[in-house]
Amino acid sequence: MAASSSLFSCSIQGAVPFQKQSDLVSMQIKHPRLLLPNEKFSQSQTLCRAPKTENLPSFSVGKKFQLDDVIEAQQFDRDILGAIFEVARDMEKIEKRSPGSQILKGYLMATLFYEPSTRTRLSFESAMKRLGGEVLTTENAREFSSAAKGETLEDSIRTVEGYSDIIVMRHFESGAAKRAAATAGVPVINAGDGPGQHPTQALLDVYTIEREIGKLDGIKVALVGDLAHGRTVRSLAYLLARYNDVKIYFVSPDAVKMKASLESLRNVGDLESHIFYSFQNDIKDYLTSRNVEWEEGADLMEVASKCDILYQTRIQRERFGERTDLYEEARGKYIVDPHVLEMMQKHAVIMHPLPRLDEITVDVDGDPRAAYFRQAKNGLYIRMALLKLLLVGWNFSLGVSAESLRNG
Fold it and tell me: What is the pTM of this model?
């Protein structure tokens, strides 16, 4: 979505931002709304000014959220990440204060999912409802929408944006989220685009690491499992590169390494595999360009003894097409079980984007270092924060709805 506007803190209840005038610094309020640019005001009106800017980061100075859409992890710098995490911590308080805030009352979110999802779709829908908003949902848009009739993604987006204020989309094609954002006039959030990226998962992953380990600088992270097709590990690696003295270990079966040879990809025999080749290389090239230390390892036990975070992923059968032989070759090679726990440091944690199959045994669940269900819960807070920021910006106080401000 292409738009620019600013949000302002006002001295009376009932004022809302006029989101079409990004360069206004102060304005007068007569009724519970802002005056339009061509309206006049009297001395009896109440003054509404942007907050002072001294010693404040740019994202808190009466401005809208810097991003119009959330498409890829590279959009976020360290300062924005820290600010989003602060908002997420506020969201934790809202979630505990049932029935919760109403700051998104009057807003509609459309979830457009062309691939299966449990946690991502439900956490977004829960996030919207916990903030007072409403949800329009389609669970399997690839099969049960006009896409099955041949409708283009662009036409679907143009239609859905007419019914909603924000679109959350999961798609089977890498790059689909960028296409949607280029088409839409409302914010678009990428909830996973094929083997491409999953930026909101990466945000909740980094948030979880900070909550569990207590820091983000100087950590060692093992990315384990399907690194060839894993959009979660791609996005996470991009975000980890924002922090200092991070080391990343890549541990995966040969068939799904982060970097594969072009010849082996030709053997798979489809265009998507050639796309994988560039994807797999761009992560390592990016880490190197950011002076992030990384290393490939084959011994899970050895890596587990060194790392602060063991980030396990499943081998994604749906990405192998007809090459079930490659899937069978990869699955079951690296399994986190009590023997791996014995090698891990006491402060270290196990994470997983879920769903899991057999790559983490159920007898690990009871160990306090098993953080994956806490990780999933954190997805609610991060997505609440993103919806709040994209729709109403930084400055709305908790417990006050945008609708109440509009209606006085």
Answer: 0.76
